[in-house]
Amino acid sequence: MYEKLRKMSWLDAFLIMGLLCLVVGVSLEINQSREGKVEVFKKEVTPTISPAAAGLNIVVEVAGAVQNPGVFEMKAGERIFEALALAGGLAGEADREWVEKNINKSEKLKDGQKIYIYRVGEERNREIDEKINSGEVKGLVSLNQATQSELESLPGVGPVMAGKIINYREENGGFRNVEEVKLVAGIGDKLYEGIKDLISL
Asked: Residue range 31-53: average pLDDT?
């Protein structure tokens, strides 16, 4: 073997060295290419979790005649009956007849929503009850979506005030919570107390 190598011309040796370099170079390129492909593959399969898939939380208040009134953190898409269950269910003094007539337990919860359960014999806003019982007010009025006429169905809210509510939500990108309606010019604590149980986001 050694004798054969000695008899090789410098040209043969050069060709052999060149061939070896070529083989090594191709091998390195293939390895780098494989590594690059693996990296790209990893990036493609890495899932991006959207806020909807992650399940955003909302905050609601359950008050009045329930076992454990309070503020609760719920998942977006959950419904009123689930919030009532989290509050321990209706208390013994709850006006169940009123609840059956006026609380839509299947309604989806909204961030900042308040659910109030009346007690039997509890004094109420007569104007509100009359509107509810007559069907003039059907469910909660959405501050962010209600029409002019729907806002006017609220007690104490006329055409001018309804227009102010609409202007406020358009100028500020909507209401972020129910109490924010008090920032609308002309809506004080008294008017808010009269409509708070009839409005939502």
From this structure: 43
